[in-house]
Design a protein that fits this description.
The protein is an alpha/beta fold and 393 residues long. The protein folds into two domains: 167 residues, 2-Layer Sandwich (VC0802-like), CATH 3.30.2130; 211 residues, Rossmann fold, CATH 3.40.50.620. Helices cover 38% and strands 21% of the residues. The strands form two sheets. Strands 1, 2, 3, 4, 5, 6, 7, 8 and 9 form a nine-stranded mixed beta sheet that branches. A six-stranded mixed beta sheet has the order 14-13-10-11-12-15, with helices on both faces. The chain starts with a strand and ends with a strand.
């Protein structure tokens, strides 16, 4: 019988909390496979999860599972009886099938793991027996240090299996394991990647988008909806909050110095997002900000902006250079959407030379000219929710 073997990542470090992390991972795996087949089953093993599904759906199942956080690696394997003869013959047959679709390697090795201590053959001898059978029937060369191909054998108390491929998983922690954060999402490259990285660390994200209609059109709004939809599958669904921001920007334009406009915009976003985040049970905000990437992201400005929030502000891209962020955006499928032309509300009414070293006392004094509480309440209460399902794998 063919199975999919899922290996845990860093869950083994979680001590007494490990059971909760593993249950979350199982729930996320079930959700990922929900529409693959009605015949999928999931079983928990020691440091492993075992998925069985019809052979014709295995490839599709693996592709979905590669995006589930908390999985370090994935193998498709053949389950075998716990008998050394059956293990050897299955390994030869599986490897022969594997090589029929690929350029034959010049070397291989066998890694054997025996967690069932009742099995009479110890791990080193399993490796030698299987390796000898492969040499005899397929004529490959054994290379223990740097083989081109690794054949794996695991003999457990409940099941034994053989595999010849190990694809990397998404790593990280199961989504939902570390709480919820509100993500300030725009139509650019950085913020969707920041959301992805927060999900990788086990967070459920609640995206908030600031929309300045008619200065930012519906095309920009649609872009952000698409980006949020790309992030939805790993957590099941996403509710995007679209916040009207035009009145706030017009008020800042009328009453505040132009060179501080971006800093003032961002501080208002922090206030509004904090208010909305608390209402949704979030413990922190997350942004795609990067140190020194643009004029508003100097260390002085970031410090000034952050003080407007009443909860922690997480910046997973803080030290990334742009090339690293673009590479991640390509990997997660947001890059092609992000590079479509769009209007960023933070670029509205901004002078050519914005302030790069904002002083907190100065900014706070200027904000006294604004009806702060009324503007924040109107924006938060006037937000629109866009519910997105997680079927866009």
């Amino acid at each position: 019988m063919q199975i999919i073997v899922l290996r845990h990542g860093e869950l083994f470090l979680k001590g007494r909390n490990r059971g909760r992390f593993e249950r979350l991972l199982q729930d996320n795996v079930r959700r990922a496979l929900r529409t693959v087949s009605d015949e999928v089953t999931l079983e928990r093993g020691q440091g492993r999860l075992f998925v069985t599904c019809p052979p014709q759906h295995v490839a599709r199942g693996v592709e979905r599972l590669r995006r589930v956080f908390g999985i370090s690696s994935i193998s498709t394997a053949m389950q075998v009886p716990p008998q050394i003869e059956a293990i050897c013959s299955t390994a030869v047959a599986l490897l022969r099938e594997h090589l029929s679709h690929r350029q034959p390697p010049t070397s291989f090795r066998v890694t054997a793991r025996r967690s069932d201590k009742q099995f009479p053959v110890p791990s080193p001898d399993i490796g030698r027996e299987v390796g000898s059978a492969i040499v005899e029937h397929l004529g490959l060369k054994v290379e223990l240090q740097s083989p081109e191909l690794v054949v794996g054998v695991e003999v457990g108390p409940r099941r034994s299996f053989v595999f010849v491929d190990r694809v990397p998983g998404a790593g990280g922690l199961p989504v939902g394991a570390t709480g919820a954060v509100a993500l300030l999402l725009s139509g650019g490259i950085d913020s969707p990647v920041a959301g992805h990285l927060m999900q990788k660390r086990g967070c459920v994200i609640h995206p908030i988008y600031f929309h300045s209609f008619p200065y930012t059109g519906e095309h920009t709004r649609d872009k952000v909806v698409q980006l949020a939809h790309r992030l939805a599958p790993v957590q099941g669904s996403i509710a995007l909050q679209v916040v009207p921001f035009t009145e706030i920007q017009l008020a800042i334009r009328e009453h505040c110095p132009a060179d501080l406009a971006v800093v003032l915009y961002r501080r208002m976003m922090m206030r509004i997002a904090s208010r909305m985040a608390r209402a949704r049970g979030c413990l922190a905000l997350a942004t795609g900000e990067n140190l020194g990437q643009v004029a508003s992201q100097t260390l002085e400005n970031l410090v000034c902006i952050e003080t407007a929030a009443d909860m922690p502000v997480l910046r997973p891209l803080l030290t990334h250079d742009k090339a690293e962020t673009i590479q991640l955006a390509r990997q997660i499928g947001t890059y092609e959407v992000s590079i479509q032309p769009y209007d960023d509300c933070c670029s509205l009414f901004v002078p050519k030379h914005p302030q790069t070293r904002a002083r907190l006392q100065t900014v706070q004094r200027i904000e006294q000219s604004l009806p702060m509480e009324e503007l924040v309440a109107a924006a938060a209460d006037g937000s629109e929710e866009v519910a997105l399902d997680g079927e866009a794998w």
